[in-house]
Amino acid sequence: MYDVIIIGSGPAGLTASIYTTRANLKTLVIGGVKWGGQLMLTTLVENFPGFPEGIQGPDLMENMRKQAEHHGAELLLEDFTKGDFSKQPFTLFAGDKQFQAKTVIITSGADAKWLNVPGEKERIGRGVSSCATCDAMFFRNKNVFIVGGGDSAMEEALVLANVAASVTIIHRRDAFRASEIMQQRAKEHPKINFLFNSEITEIKGEGRVQSALVKNIETGEVKEMPVDGIFVAIGHIPNTKVFEGIELDEQGYIKVRDHYHTNVPGVFTAGDVHDRSYRQAVTAAGFGCAAALETERWLAMQGKEAEFTAN
Amino acid sequence: MADFVVTDQNFEAEVLKSETPVLVDFWAEWCQPCKIVSPIVEELAKEYAGKIKVGKMDVDENPQTAGNYGVMSIPTLMVFKNGQPVKTTIGAQGKDALKRMVDEALAG
Ligand SMILES: Cc1cc2nc3c(=O)[nH]c(=O)nc-3n(C[C@H](O)[C@H](O)[C@H](O)COP(=O)(O)OP(=O)(O)OC[C@H]3O[C@@H](n4cnc5c(N)ncnc54)[C@H](O)[C@@H]3O)c2cc1C
User: Fold this and answer.
1) Which domains does chain A carry?
2) pLDDT (tens digit per residue) in A237-267
3) CB of A40 closer than 6 A to ligand 1?
4) What does the alpha-carbon distance between residue A274 and residue A247 come to, in Å, rounded to a whole number?
5) Shortest CA distance from B91: residue in chain A
6) CA B21, B26, B30 angle in degrees (round to 5)?
7) Is A289 tagged catalytic?
8) From the CB of A291, is ligand 1 less than 6 Å away?
C-alpha cells in the first residue's frame, strides 16, 4: 500500500514526488512509457529559473528524476491503464500490475493534437510528425509543411528551415497568434513561406507522405500539393481519457476544486492536465509542489479523524 | 549491450542473411526519445539471447538503409526475418509493448 501514487513523470509529477518522499510518504510514480513528459521533446529551455544559460529539456528531466529517486521515489516506466477511484484505498492498474494507494496525484500532462484528417494516422512517423527537433534530419533538402499559428509552429518552422529545402506554414486564419519576436524570426527566414486561410483536408502517398489536399477556406478551392513532411503544431490535448470517475471540464481538462483537489476526495491533480492557462515547466513544477503539500495535509487530517473515531 | 552495430555495409550480411531474426534499433545521438528505448532494447537483447539478434543502427552514419526502409522518425524498431521486415514500431514504447512485438515476430 502506497501513501501516494503519482501518475505521470513530467515536471509536475517529479516535483510532487520530491515533496511527498521528503515528507516520508511512501511514493510510487507511475511515470508512463514516455517518462519525462513534454520537455523530452525539446532542446534548450531558457526560462526555467536557476539555469542562467538555459538547460537542455531532457537534461532538466534527467536531473529531476535523479532528485526524485535520490529521495526514495519508486518510478515505474509504464502507463496507468485504469483505476477504481470509487472507494478507499484506490486501486490502480498499469497493464496487469495492480497497486493500492491512499491518495493519488494525477499529473499526466498533455500530448500533441493531430489534425484528424484522412490519411494522417497511418503516416505518423512516415512523414507526419509533431516533433521537429526529433525528426527534422529526415527532411534534409525536402519540402515540408507546418500546420499551426502559435509559437510552437514558428519554432518548428525555424528548426526545419535549417535542413529542409523549403518550409511552408499553413494556418487557418489570416494572422498568427505567435509572439511578435517568433513571427519576426520566421518571416525573416528566406526558406519559410506562408499560406494563410488554408487547411489540410487529406494526406496522401504511397506508404509515406507525398502530397496533401489543401483547402483555401475563403474560396473553398482545394489543391493537391506535393510535400514530403507534415509537422502538426496546433496545440495539445490533456491526457485524461483513462481516468474514469474524475470530473473533466468541457475541453477535457481535469476540473480542479479548491487547492488542487479533484471531485474525488484524496485524488489531486497538477500541471498541464488541469492547467489551460500557463502551460510552462516552472508552473507545472509549482502545481506539483502545491498538490503534494495538499496531499500531505489531507493524509494528516484523515489520520486525525481516524484517531478521533477510534476514541 | 546490444549484440552488434549495424551499418549500411554489414546490413545485408548481418541482418538480411541472418539465420536468426534480427531486431534493429534505428537511433541517433541527438534523438531524445531514443534514450528512453535504448535501455529497454538492451534488456531485450539479454532476455531473448539465442532467439533473436539485436543490432543498433545510427541513422546519421547510415542514411542509406534507413532511407530504403522508409524510416522517417526515430526511434524506429524493426524485426527482420528471412530478409524481410516483419514488424515495425515507431516512437517510444514500453517494455511490454516491445516484448509483444518481438514475440509476435518470432511466432509469425
Ligand atoms: C516542444 C516543447 C517545448 C517546450 N518548451 C518549454 C520551455 O522552453 N519552457 C517551459 O517552461 N515550458 C516549455 N514547454 C511546456 C512544458 O513542457 C510543459 O508545460 C510541462 O512539461 C508540463 O508538465 P507536466 O508535468 O504537467 O506534463 P508533461 O510534461 O506533459 O508530462 C506528463 C507525463 O505524464 C505521462 N503520462 C501520460 N499519460 C499517462 C498514463 N496514462 N500513465 C502514466 N503516465 C502518463 C507522460 O508520459 C508524461 O511523462 C514546452 C513544451 C513542448 C511540447
Assistant:
1) 2-111+236-310 (3.50.50.60), 114-232 (3.50.50.60)
2) 999 999 999 999 998 999 998 879 999 999 9
3) no
4) 11
5) A125
6) 160
7) no
8) no
